[in-house]
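In this supplementary section we document a worked example of the pipeline. Step one takes a protein sequence of length 190 as its only input; no multiple sequence alignment statistics are reported here. Step two produces a three-dimensional model, which step three serialises into structure tokens for compact storage. The input and output of this example are shown verbatim.
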Amino acid sequence: MHRIKEVIIKTMISIEPHVVATFSRCTKHRNVCFEVYGFDILLDAKLKAWLLEVNISPSLSSSSPLDKKIKTVLLCDTLNLIGVYPYDRKQYEKEMESILKKRLLGLDRPLKGEDALDLIPESYLQKIVKQLNKDADGANQLSEEDVNIIIEFEEEQFRLGNFEKIFPSINNVNTFAPLFENHRSANALL
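The serialised model returned by step three reads:
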């Protein structure tokens, strides 16, 4: 499995510039799209992993009960991982009606500064980050974007399901990080 994971990581690093460029061209916001890739890997007699192909739109149709079970779990875990939640039209209409009533009655005046921040419920992680920033000097404080990235990452870890994060990890970041730098250097020369 270690060799298979390495092939997948290297393949994804090799297409990273293309994926990032396409993403940047298609949207301005993070976390608004996702892609499922299907990797076909062959193992030789020495169990060396060889990439046969990568399917950018793998089939989700099923031809057997086992295939259906695997793909159902894949789809459920994918939707959980990206954070999709069910849309309730009645609840949305109720919330919109409440917002419109408050606006009509003048009760929707925005709060300013510390008053507005006090109304936002803090997660455990946000409290830790707040304490870290309080203890850090100005140069080492986390920005709001840094905090949001950390929070998104931690929330994503709780939604992994049967997925496994294979990169970055403490065991492989030093091995594969230079490949990103080589990409950026090669692209800068073009």
